[in-house]
Sequence to fold (211 residues):
Amino acid sequence: MEDDSMTTQDGGNGIPEEAKPQELFTKPLRDGGMISYIEREVDRFDFDGYEVVRKELFSKANCPAVTIKYGKIMFNTRAIRKLNECSHVQILINSEKKLMISKPCDEEEKDSVQWSRIHSKTEKTVSRQISGQYFTAQLFEEMRWDINSTIKILGTLLKCREEKIFIFDLKNAEAYISISAMDPDNPKRRKRIPLIPERWQGHYGPSRSRS
Fold:
C-alpha cells in the first residue's frame, strides 16, 4: 500500500502545493454579471524597486511641447494658452545646463519672436512656425541631433509671482525619423519611428524614492 504522505507533490522547493499561501495579487473574479475585485488592507505602501514612468513615454496630445526641425521651430497651442496666449516670446538657451526657456515679452522688446497668430477664420490663437536656419543649425550641432530627425520636447510651466515661463530640458528631447511604410495602396505613406534618448534606455523613469 502506498504511503499517503508521499503522494503530495511539491513545487520544487519542498513546500507542498496545498500548504503554499495564496498568491497576493490575483485576477478579478467574475460572478455572473458582476466582477469581484480583490481588496486588501496594508500597513503601508511599499514602492521600493518601482520607477515612475516618464510622461514622455505616453501620448503627448495634450501636453505643452515644442517641435524642432532643421530650419524651423514651433510651440504647440497648449503651451501658448498656458502663457495667456501672448503673441511674442524671447527664447533663452543655457548651453551648460542644456535648457531652453520661452519667456513672454512685448513685440517691441529686443530679440522677441512671434510664436502665435490669430487664425483668419476662427479668430482663435494658434501656433506660428518660427523660421530659424542658423538657430537650429547651431542647436542640432550642439546637441548632436540628426538633422533629418524631428525633435519634440515637453515643457514645464514655472511660475514666480505674476510671471510665467516655460522651460524645456533639451536632454530629454525625443527624436523621430520618418521612413517609408510598406503600403502598396499608398506608396508615399510615411511612418514616424521614435528614437528613445540614450539616457532613458534600460529603465522607465526615476525610482519612486527619488521622484
